[in-house]
Amino acid sequence: MSDANNTAGDANEVNPEKDLSAENLPGQRGQGGEEIRVQRGMFGANNGGDTSGYGGLVRSVRLPGPASRPYGGWFDEVADELEGALEEQGLLPDNAIEKTVVDRGELTFHIEREHLVRVARTLRDDPALRFELCTGVSGVHYPHDKGRELHAVYHLRSITHNRLIRLEVSAPDGDPHIPSLVSVYPTNDWHERETYDFFGIVFDDHPALTRIMMPDDWQGFPQRKDYPLGGIPVEYKGAQIPAPDQRRSYS
Amino acid sequence: MSTSHASPRETTEGTVYTVTGGDWDEVVQSAARADDERIVVNMGPQHPSTHGVLRLILEIDGETVTEARCGIGYLHTGIEKNLEYRTWTQGTTFVTRMDYLTPFFNEAAYCLGVEKLLGIDDQIPDRATIIRVLLMELNRLSSHLVAIATGGMELGATTIMIYGFRDRELILDIYELITGLRMNHAYIRPGGLAQDLPPGAVDQIREFVKKMNKNLPEYDKLATGNPIFKARMQDVGYLDLAGCMALGATGPVLRSTGLPHDLRKTQPYCGYETYDFDVPTADTCDSYGRFLIRLEEMRQSLRIVEQCLDRLQPGPVMVADKKIAWPAQLALGPDGLGNSLDHIKKIMGTSMEALIHHFKLVTEGFRVPPAQVYTAVESPKGELGVHVVSDGGTRPFRVHFRDPSFTNLQAMAAMCEGGQVADVIVAVASIDPVMGGVDR
After folding, report:
1. Which of A173, B43, B134, B240 could cross-link with A149 by S-S, CB 3.0 to 4.6 Å?
2. Res B338: pLDDT
3. What is the mean pLDDT of each run of 10 residues along chain B (440 residues)?
4. In this structure, which CATH number among 3.40.1380.20, 3.50.50.60, 3.30.870.10, 1.10.645.10 belongs to the domain B79-319+368-402?
5. A95 belongs to a structural domain
6. Which among B316, B309, B312, B307 is positioned nearest to B274, based on CA atoms?
């Protein structure tokens, strides 16, 4: 069975040379990239018979993977300076920087969480880097990315050098702790409270990590993927329209 | 406790005795301890001068604010979560409601993000981009008009409030003509625009520019040199460059410290690098400087609007890729805007494939390759950033808005503590927070 599937997969492998619209197809990354989920079936239907015929569909969802040198443009300069500055502090860059991703003209450093504060401080203070403005933190929940379910994503802007980079830090669901960046970027105070409120990421050493949007006694973390959207079916022109999270899903 | 002298190592003139004796600090501290006038006051969330449902928690000693904190979240509507359950196109309907005074900026930032994910950012037709810029600059005018009008009203200046809303009404009329709505437009869509400009729009905008060029000096005459206005605004809500950087404040708050940071100049999007305009700054770091900047930005926006009108050439307003372009052949019917009758006749009567295509695109939407991007636009309040993550599906996996109102509002404590209670209102008004954007 699995063999059959594999051969079918190979046969359907997109050939970018031939298929000009290959970039629009969802499975284009093939084996490259970082798998965050395996999608089976379609329309969100996973019980009952396979009436649609889509039940056997297997799709690997992959985010862009690590890039190799040269990254292009000023990316190499920033990466060199960061690695050099970390080395000066006696920190092996490979220990701090998990991987570097270049995608869609944006540079992302995946940072080990225990080194986040030091990396951020270096990025802020080093004259060659000087990322003085942090635009806050955004949480992302990848429930199927085992061991790295919760991601905190920071965008740092350098007004001095007119650059923008992204830092990404992950934490497992069972131990949702990420060090707080408030001591480096005070602007993250509210942003981290918001991310805690919605994702339950605990930012260690935050001065007052409390809920900010939801009521203080709220249960659960609303923007996690396992937290339901809620809603009730409504009647429209005689038909029952299901609540938004109950509607057919193509994702 | 401070030392009473500076040691020879710290000076070039030997030991220098300073006048900050330890006694004085002790006297002040014990006076503060003995004082029982300290009270905690809740201003809002239903206070007329707090810009919507914002709760300010002030610790007051007499007329002095010793500590100030914000309570927010009263307007949280879960827009980011809701986006994860709609198609990429439906997303614009939600994001336009975030900061409801800058709908076109929300839509544009979101759509630029989706287009970057799709990799079609260079395929957006010129006409669509120019209309986006046109609407964003009109929106900058209307947002600043509200900021100045409500800011004036909170000082008791009702005339400037009437002026501001009078002129904003002219802009809302233009919105209504173009999009059908005064707010919540959902007019900018991934790939382009929902529809082209209607006949008469360009003329009406030209008329408006003419009128606005006449009206703008009235604000100068009324407020800029007004001694009461200046007395209330100058040196109030002080936040310098270091404070702005630390607190992430952008927009007029940052530019009032003298730093000409404007994403339209530093990281141009939508072809802003080809427009001729200036970035006004002030060096006062206070509310008055922010007022002057907003006033000048409105003049600059009018310049950009005029340039947009001159550049408009007939052409498509949606990408050519039929897999993305929503079949937006819209027309105005007796029951409002909807699919044009010609289009319905075609898909229902003659082309089954067109019907299937229409149905798929409307119900299922288009797929966006898995990746993440961050796009930012310079909204009237500062850097409006959008972090969009796709998992390759027809719905956003995660959309996060970095709203400038949210970030700038954090600076409230730094601006207000140590000042007068009456100045809190001026300082908050100079940040121009909109709670729809703060709470999302």
Report:
1. A173
2. 76
3. 60 66 66 71 73 84 87 89 91 92 93 92 91 93 92 86 92 90 89 87 92 90 87 90 92 92 91 92 91 92 92 89 77 74 84 86 87 93 93 90 92 90 89 88
4. 1.10.645.10
5. yes
6. B307
The residue extents of the domains of chain B are 9-71, 79-319+368-402, 330-364
The distance of B174 to chain A (nearest Cα, Å) reads 32
What pLDDT is attached to residue B145?
93
A136, A190, A244: residue with CB nearest B85: A244
Residues of B in contact with A135 (CB under 8 A): 248, 374, 376, 383, 385, 402, 407
CATH number at residue A109: 3.30.460.80
Is A75 a member of any domain? yes
Q: Is residue A104 part of a domain?
A: yes
Interface test with A, best of B80, B118, B372, B405 (most A CBs within 10 A): B372
Chain mean pLDDT for chain A: 82
In angstroms, the CA A169 to CA A149 distance is 10
Q: Is the pLDDT of residue A9 over 80?
A: no
Q: What are the two backbone dihedrals, phi and then psi, of residue A237, each rounded to the nearest 5 degrees?
A: 50, 45
The residue among A231 and A24 whose pLDDT is bigger is: A231
Residue range of the domain that includes A150: 65-204
Nearest to A213 among B266, B370, B439 (CB): B439
Which of A103, A185, A190, A237 should one mutate to test binding to chain B, selecting the residue with the greatest count of B CBs within 10 A?
A190
CB B323 to CB A186 under 8 A? Answer: no
Chain A positions in Cβ-Cβ contact with residue B367 (cut-off 8 Å):
24, 26
In a domain, residue A130? The reply is yes
Q: pTM, whole model, 2 decimals?
A: 0.86
Contacts of B370 in chain A (CB under 8 A): 26, 29, 33, 36, 61-64
| pLDDT at A3 exceeding the cut of 50 | no
| Number of domains chain A contains | 1
B115 vs A36, A138, A251, B14, B377, CA distance in Å? 22, 20, 18, 65, 14
Give the amino acid at B78: G
B404 CB within 8 Å of a chain A CB: no
**Alpha-carbon distances, residue B367 vs A163, A245, B299, B412 (angstroms):** 30, 18, 41, 42
The pLDDT of residue A30: 53
Decide if A17 contacts A28 (C-beta within 8 A): no
Does the model's ipTM exceed the 0.90 cut?
no
